Amino acid sequence: MKLDKAVPGGPCWTELGTSDLEAAKRFYTNIFGWRPETDPRQEAGGYTIAHLGDAPVAALTPLYQESQPVAWNVSFWAPDADGAVAAVRAAGGAVLMEPMDVFDLGRFAVVTDPGGAAFQLWQARSFPGAGLFNAPGSLGWVELMTRDPVAVTAFYRTVFGWTVHASESYTQWGIEGSDFGGMVEMGDKFPHEVPSHWLPYFAVEDVDRTAQDCIAAEGTLLMEPTTIGDGRRIAVPRDPQGAMFGLYTAGEE
């Protein structure tokens, strides 16, 4: 990710909805060295912010609805959440949760793109989102897995104004040329029941070692550590409750 801070239209936060909050705290603390702090207010519903040092880097939450899957979610900074929701609708997306205020922290909505991938919109007030990017244990990349690349490319360019750098093997998203994520077309190798989704990648110093740490902590590997074309090393683990996430290191510049 070339972005080292949250910018309008870019990824600003990621949070896990999990069926076992305490187990998730232990797992990710073991893997990334996070320091989780749970909001004590009853109305916060167990919302837990993970820190590296003093910087917030991600959130862990209980499942708030029976239909909610165990999964990581990605939030994008929308300076005007209500306006962004209107843009999503106009561009062919759908709204799962209308904009709502979250204390004095910001304004929040949940939407889907035309391919069905859910993501979140965050209008920051007192809480801007992640305080650290690309450092070990923090968000390093976001990737869209989709079955409709043509429609969703047009959608995200319209809604967020993203730049698109497409090659034969991979499409990268950017803001004014600073890439922060990519897109993978879900072909036959993906089971039909796997929906389109956004996947956060966390930066680590050593993908292979962290992948083994995941296994030792009772996670599994969906994709073994692999070197991709630009020299980066990646892997995709799944935590003990079933949530997928990516591991990422930058190659030599």
From TrEMBL:
CDD domains, sorted: SgaA_N_like (cd07247)
Residues in VOC domain copies: 10-124, 138-250
A Pfam family that the UniProt record links to this protein: Glyoxalase
InterPro entries found in the cross-reference section: Anthracycline_SecMetBiosynth (IPR052164), Glyas_Bleomycin-R_OHBP_Dase (IPR029068), Glyas_Fos-R_dOase_dom (IPR004360), VOC_core (IPR037523)
Identification of the protein by name: VOC family protein
Listed Gene3D superfamilies: 2,3-Dihydroxybiphenyl 1,2-Dioxygenase, domain 1 (3.10.180.10)
